[in-house]
Design a protein that fits this description.
mainly alpha
C-alpha cells in the first residue's frame, strides 16, 4: 500500500505502476547517464561518502527522519540541494522522475539505499573518466 501510494498520482494505468516502480523490486535496468554525468562532480565524491555515513547512522529509517538527517547534512556540507538530491534520485531509481527522494529511500530500505548510492557513484565516476 505504501509503494502504490507513492505513485497513485503519477500513473494512469496498471502497467504504468509496474514500469514506474520496477526499481523497488529489481535492480535498476538503466540510469539517466546524461543527467548523471551533467550533475556529478567527481571532486565531491568524498562528501557523498560522508553522506553515506550520515545515512548509515539514521536509526529510524522513515521518510521524515531520513529527510531531516539528509537536509541537515546538506546544510553542513555546503553542497546544496541541487547538487545532492538529483544524484540521490538517479542512484535510487535510475531516473530524475519519481516521488520524494526520502520516500524512495524509506521504501527501498537503508541497506539497498547505501548499496545503490555506491553503485551510482562508481558509475558516475566511470562516465567522467571516459569523457
Amino acid at each position: 500500500a505504501r509503494i502504490c501510494g507513492l505513485y497513485k498520482e503519477r500513473v494512469q494505468f496498471m502497467p504504468d505502476f509496474i514500469e514506474k516502480m520496477a526499481y523497488i523490486f529489481e535492480d535498476i535496468a538503466s540510469y539517466d547517464e546524461k543527467n548523471g554525468k551533467k550533475r556529478w562532480h567527481p571532486e565531491n565524491r568524498p562528501a557523498f561518502e560522508q553522506l553515506n555515513e550520515a545515512i548509515e547512522n539514521i536509526d529510524t529509517f522513515e521518510e521524515t527522519t531520513i529527510e531531516t538527517s539528509v537536509k541537515a547534512w546538506i546544510e553542513e556540507s555546503g553542497l546544496g540541494f541541487g547538487k545532492v538530491l538529483p544524484i540521490l534520485r538517479i542512484a535510487l531509481a535510475g531516473t530524475m522522475q519519481g516521488p520524494s527522494v526520502f520516500a524512495m529511500m524509506e521504501v527501498v530500505g537503508k541497506n539497498l539505499t547505501l548499496e545503490r548510492l555506491n553503485e551510482a557513484y562508481n558509475l558516475l565516476d566511470r562516465l567522467h573518466e571516459s569523457a
